[in-house]
């Protein structure tokens, strides 16, 4: 599996950054009323929780592109990264290759297969993810794995170049993926979802948004690979309800 990832992302060795902070799960307010109707509502809310996937990491959720950032991303890619860092760099190729990384990392998380993440994910981050995944129910864990063919929209939200005082330099790319679970099977059966699927209740529980941030060192003389230092999965309709 590691060889496949290294093939699609040049010299890939994905790692998640350490010292990731997580929010504590908020405590639910107890319902003390003896009214049977209230008790029924409490049961219904518990059923809703089983269909809700909490965010994996504390990171501001990204859902849509920014026009200003789109212009900056194009400039960084064509006027800095390609001429000075990597002449073969293509943002479009990176987007497609990054989907393979999403599939491998998310699949390992669903199966709690942290052994597979060794060498791809930082040790401290693996420990943090173990804690996060252990707090999910069995049904919630089933939401984690993402097939790359189920990604129907992907874009780089932000491309950045980082320098420090010792002339070290990195490129950081924050990606956003819109996912409809089961889209691959729909395509194969010819049963394509409507354009307005986001507003259709029957699709809402299967729509997910993923934020992954990739980083790679491009310091002269350093042979590095792309790492992942942010992994976040969430359901947009649940996020909107909180607003």
UniProtKB/TrEMBL annotation:
InterPro entries: NTF2-like_dom_sf. One of its GO terms (biological process) is protein insertion into mitochondrial inner membrane from matrix. GO terms for cellular component: mitochondrial inner membrane. Transmembrane segments: none annotated. One of its GO terms (molecular function) is ribosome binding. This is Juvenile hormone esterase binding protein.
């Amino acid at each position: 599996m590691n060889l496949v990832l290294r093939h699609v992302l040049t010299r890939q060795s994905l790692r998640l950054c350490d010292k990731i902070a997580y929010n504590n799960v908020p405590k639910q307010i107890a319902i003390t009323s003896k009214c049977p109707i209230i008790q029924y509502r409490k049961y219904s809310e518990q059923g809703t929780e089983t269909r809700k996937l909490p965010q994996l990491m504390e990171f501001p959720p990204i859902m849509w592109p920014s026009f200003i950032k789109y212009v900056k991303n194009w400039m960084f890619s064509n006027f800095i990264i390609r001429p000075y860092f990597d002449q073969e760099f293509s943002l479009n190729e990176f987007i497609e290759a990054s989907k393979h990384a999403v599939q491998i990392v998310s699949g390992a998380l669903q199966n709690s297969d942290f052994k597979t993440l060794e060498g791809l994910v930082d040790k401290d981050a693996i420990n943090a993810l173990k804690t996060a995944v252990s707090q999910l129910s069995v049904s919630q864990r089933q939401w984690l794995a993402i097939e790359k063919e189920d990604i129907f929209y992907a874009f780089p939200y932000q491309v950045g170049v980082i320098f420090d005082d010792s002339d070290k330099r990195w490129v950081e790319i924050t990606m956003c993926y819109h996912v409809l679970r089961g889209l691959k099977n729909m395509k194969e059966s010819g049963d394509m979802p409507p354009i307005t699927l986001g507003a259709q209740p029957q699709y809402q529980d299967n729509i997910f948004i993923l934020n992954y941030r990739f980083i790679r060192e491009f310091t002269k003389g350093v042979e590095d690979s792309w790492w992942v230092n942010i992994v976040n999965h969430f359901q947009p309709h649940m996020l909107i309800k909180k607003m």
